[in-house]
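Thread: Modeling a multi-component assembly for a lab meeting

Hi all, long-time lurker, first post. My supervisor asked me to bring a structural picture of a complex we are working on to next week's group meeting, and I have zero experience with this. I have the sequence lines for every component (822 residues in total). Could someone generate the structure of the whole assembly? Inputs are pasted exactly as I received them:
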Amino acid sequence: MTFTTLTFLIFLALVFVAYWSCGHWKVQNVILVVASYAFYGWWDYRFCGLMLASSLFDYSAALAVHKLSHRPARRVIFVLSLAANLGLLGFFKYHDFFADNFRVLAESLGWTVHFSTLRVVLPVGISFYTFQSMSYVIDVYRGQLRPTARLLEYLAYVSFFPQLVAGPIERGTHLLPQFLRTRTFEYDQAADGCRQMLWGFFKKMVIADNLAPLVNPIFANAAGAEGGALAVATIFFAFQIYCDFSAYSDIAVGTARLFGFELMRNFALPYFAQSPGEFWRRWHISLTTWFRDYVYVPLGGARVAPGRGAFNILLTFVLSGFWHGASWTFIIWGLLHGISVAVERLICKHTPRKVTDTPGGEAWLPSPRTLLNMALTFGLICVGWIFFRASTTGEALLILKKAGLSLLTLDPVPWALALTEDSPLGWGILVLLPGLVVIEWITRRRPHPLYLPGWPRPLRWAGYLGLIAVILWAGTFSNVEFIYFQF
Amino acid sequence: MNPLRRFIFRLLLFLAIPASLLGVVFGLYQKRFPIEQSLYAASVDKHRLLQTQAAPRMIFVGGSSMAFGLDSGHVAGRCGYHPVNMGLIMATGLELMLQEVSPWVRPGDVVVLSPEYQLLERYYHGEPEYLARLLECHPSLLRALSWSQLKELLDRGYLHHTGRVLRTVGGQFEGILDGITNAYNHRGAFNANGDVIAHHGVQGHREQRGRVEFNASPIALAAVEHLNRFHAECQAKGVRVFFSHPPYEKAWFDVQFAAISKADRFLRERLTIPFLDSAEEMTFPSEQMFDTEYHLNLDGIRRRSNLMAERLTQALAAPPPTPRLSSSIQTGDKP
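Re: Modeling a multi-component assembly
Sure thing. I ran the full set together rather than chain by chain. Output:
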């Protein structure tokens, strides 16, 4: 079930009523598990079996790891659990990639191999719930988390429908305890959850989905497209993927708050970042911190020689790229970011900005230096998006070359105007994008732009109604799934 | 008031505002495009005819090319049948076209299928926003929808429909989806047999032509299986089924030749239904076309109707062939 459907709104209303009609948290958890599996099975009921099997395995593994006092036995169970999770991902997500590359490699060596690809259907959200489940077992193994013996609560933790298919990837230490206590309905939390959902719907249906038909044809015909068009399409894609993915997180966080849960923040205005490192502290935070805690830090993190530290960063980013998809373009995307973050770490001596710092500084307007830093970082991120979006490495290099050359001639400006003529919103999209940047800048100290405490209710309600009208008027209701569902 | 009740009360109070505004918008829309005069309301008339037409009937199934491109009375009359033209609009999907007719065919009937090429893949399930509009005008068709169509309708169809109504009332006119766009796209444009006649003698305003894309996808396989299943069900009831290619503008046919040939080959390899004609035979010069590459003017209608009547007369004179197994069964281990 996708958030941006009428089915989801009806489903949400029914689950909300059923959930709060039950006084006891254990019954509420039963409702959440049933609702979450129904939500997931709406795509394909067969996926539910896979998620259940994965959950049961990790639940048992975590209990066994905790109970066993014999250290080697604990380690065997732990490794088995990791292998099962990675094997699941490997089979569904990476089998064909390795099969194709193995065949190409063998043929280049003159061998003839018959290694068939399976073209298996990738279950929606498998990368997200597998990582969430894996982090639980790792935390238990490290002694940072006491495993729950309550199976139902564990199933609820893995399958919790607001964040099931595209995150935020939660940790057992944060989310699981919330399933093991009484939840009371809090008006402010629920009301603000609705506002955050509304903002998410606006970003996804009005901005991201209206940019998709402008971006897709150009990337689909990169060889024939003009450099200016490719440059504009890349910038549009940067906004599309941000509005798409951050919208999903907003709707997920908002939905969870309706049920008394707090999920972690997944996006903190990443395009206001002034360096690649800061960008990654603000973009897809739950995944970045996952890789930091479970890959980068165990490798030695920054507490090693600078060269080794740079290698750790590179490896972490390459793995992160590979997590996104079984393709060389994602690996190169990860590598590019790894290089930029490693270089920043090696040459910049100032204390890195934290995710909790106000992006762009406290001043009302950014200084020219801040603006320049933001623009340079955004440009670098856009180079990465070319690899992320292109079908092949060759195509990405071609786009990079053509788009880069066009920037020297200011060719993208007329292209931006020409492209938007085909958009249902017309030039409106060119107003919306700077508008979004301005709104996010003004409200950057708040959890989301619709958090407007102190505003009189009639004014707030008028704003919400305006947004609903814009969503219905300009929203796209064709079958546009969230981009991150494919991962 | 406890926080939960306060929340629900305020939420309902807030939602009452957009709901009331939407009520006004829908009221304005209904005033401008009354449901009962809509093109889609012609579906009600067609179903009434399907259920009441005297036997034996000749039932024509397809999209708007069937509505705009056939004198069904002439074709059925020459073959000794009573006509029922079910053609309405391509975007409602081949799946629904077959499902809405299937329960009503009776022994001795003849069904002529002439789906537009896009119906074999892109429009097989239909577009949810068109289905929403069709159901608004003809609610009892809900029973003919498949599970996947219902799901799409609930997921996106009604939201899309609401947005479109809002845009139309706001002045952004969207044409055919509203169902009353001009003198020949409305309920009154059809005659008693279900043919559009309001465009006879009218100079059509040429619209942009649509591309045919055919990828032989799983949807196309599902479409052909559905056609074969429909054929088998009809045969079991003593109903003969024929396939006729849709009328198509010759000049545009040449441009789309590769895709159309691919679709045609795909059909000929898999379909159990006998063909009345070839894709080339059903191409027409631009002078015989009306407003789209599928819609014929009166000259074109005469030519197509005569050709179809001739082929049907020959086909019906021959005894019905022994039922052929569908390709999906033929490729199995045993029949």
